[in-house]
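As a warm-up, study this chain.
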Amino acid sequence: MIKGVHHTCITVSDLERSITFYCDLLGLELVMTEESERSGDDRSKALGVPKAKVKLAILRAGDAQVELIEYVTAKGRPYDRNNNDAGAMHIALQVEDIDAVYQRFLEHGVRFTAPPATIPAGPMEGWRWTYFFDPDGVSLEIIQTG
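Now compare it with the structure written out below.
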């Protein structure tokens, strides 16, 4: 059956801008980039998007992988979900010093929902977290475990 999660994919409007954000600011590592036209395949049918041509990047985040995909043709609508909408999701990125990361991101103009919060009780007591947004408004989280 399922062996594990291979990667998480985020559709972006500008691949190069998103690579800069995710690699230079967040510290993920660029593993590879690919274009459907360059590779000679037609991913359109598998993606379920007629006449789609895409560019993508695979990034390494510790033991996990994040795929960024830009639809060059057959572009979709801008991202417009709230965290409480069905289908909304996020990636939680673990950090060692949430206050330092929060401050650094603020200095780079990153938009947050709120300053880091502390979980007051329960099995995650002392953990700190907050949500922020990538250049397309996709919700992400930084978390410092206790």
